[in-house]
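user: can you give me the structure for this one chain? tokens are fine.
assistant: on it. calling the predictor now.
[tool input]
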Amino acid sequence: MPKSRWAYRSSLEAWRQQALRGSAQGLEPSCPLYERVPTRDESGHRLSDFMMLFPGLRERSGRERRAVLRQVDAVLKAFPEVVFADMNLRLNLLWVSVRARPGVILDIACCLKFHVPEALLVGPKTA
């Protein structure tokens, strides 16, 4: 099976030991998301991705933003399937990569929605 050049760029343990990026102070530009997002886990299995919008997060005060980021970080770290997460404050967008399991994306999205009610799951329009 051919390896993606991004396959093992970030490990789960490294992600779990750091806080979710996107704090209000000292934001640093980083490389494009497609260069940072892993496509496969440590054992070579493909990962699934989803996005959530947090409308108005960018306009909130620094303290409120940090509180939301702490809640999101706590929820994501409670799910062992989460491999990578990135919060883009300029777009109010959370990107999450997970190990595939039936229903895991809905479980995480519902939990995030419970803790941050304004959060919206991005998906295709089906109706």
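assistant: here you go. Residues 26-118 form a domain with the Alpha-Beta Plaits fold (CATH 3.30.70.100). The beta strands are 47-53, 82-88, 93-99, 120-122.
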